[in-house]
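Supplementary notes for students who missed Thursday's class. We covered one full example, reproduced here. Read the sequence, then the structure, then the short commentary at the end.
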Amino acid sequence: MTNIDVGEVAMVPLESITVGERARQEMGDLNELENSMKESGLIQPLAIKVMEDGRFLLLAGERRFQILRRNKVASIPVRIYPKDITEIEIKAIELAENFYHKNMEYWEYDNLVREIHQLQQAIYGVKAPGPGHSGWSVENTGNMVDASKGGVSTAIKRADAREAFPELFDHCKTQKDASNLMKKMDEAVIKEALAKRIELGKASTTVHQLANSFIIRDFFVGVKEIPDGIMHLVEIDPPYGIDLSNLKKSEGESRYIQDDYNEVDMDDYIEFMMKVFKGCYRVMADHSWLLCWFAPEPWFETMHQLIVGAGFSTTRLCGIWTKPSGQSRRPEMHLANSYEMFFYAWKGRPAINKAGRSNIFNYSPVPPQQKTHPTERPIELMKDIYETFAFPGSRVLIPFLGSGSGLIAADELGMAGVGFELSKGYRDSFLVKIHNK
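Structure (token representation):
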């Protein structure tokens, strides 16, 4: 059987296929499907992968497999996937198969659409807006399940709302009933309820650890409880002191700026940032790194002087996050800005983990419709930055957590992250995000 080419459709002995652990719990009405197969034949091949012993593992089509087996069919048509296919790819294949071969209640449909969408984004990444970007979008999911972009978005929102308030949806018999109920519910309330259920439920150890690392407290209060000299990396994404709320509204991106987003007045900004840098310096180890995002206009030189004044060494040759496209509020006068900058500074004489790496980090931004915070950055970007400066096992402090992407990045790199945030709404969104990963 090893002479069969991967990717082709071929006939294989049914007895050579192993079912294994399956996501499907209920087989549904097999008699109805059996009658349909006897009338129309097997229209679509089953999906299998090659195992080390030369046998095959069933990936999708268990209902058809069971019918073929009880009818003693000797050989069946299959599509063969490589043995190194990942678990998440296997699950995506099975979910897509279930979508087409099982009669579903509306809420089952919503849950399945949401899970398919999340799995495909986990495999291919989240697609940024604009042409030429790679990744998976809501539109891609729509094409996959034969639904409109709006239909997919609504199904995902219904699934979230039902998960948060299942008792409210008990009397909803159709998608229309659920959609009408959902329109009366506030998105922030849904996320808050989901977050509460996650904390009280049987979440994984990782989810609980990350949840405990996201501390709702003023940084200046919380940092006083951290001992001297224990942090290896500090990543600061502070308020920018540029009236960001109004700036984002003028750019049409105000949906993810909450009423309790904490900006700092320009008149108080210098004193605020000096206090931040001094608090961080105290808790940092003898040889450690500080990263600080900032608005170069108007704060470039001021931030440089504040960092040096707090006791750090640094350079004006900053780290730069470049994006595929840019924005400008005055396109008739200004070029579209397609980058963000961060100072990297050091206490003592630490070593860069990725010695010789370029200061350019090229990543697509988080799509606006998926942001939960105005300065949210993609997790892959944060992982690249963190592991450029720090090593696995490092302790990471994030004074202003925002979306919490830094905590996820640190955890995926084997680092221990902790941070502070004033706005509970951002923590609720964070809990929902890590629960769905």
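Commentary. The CA atoms of residues 172 and 178 lie 6 Å apart. The longest helix spans residues 106-124. If anything here is unclear, bring it to office hours.
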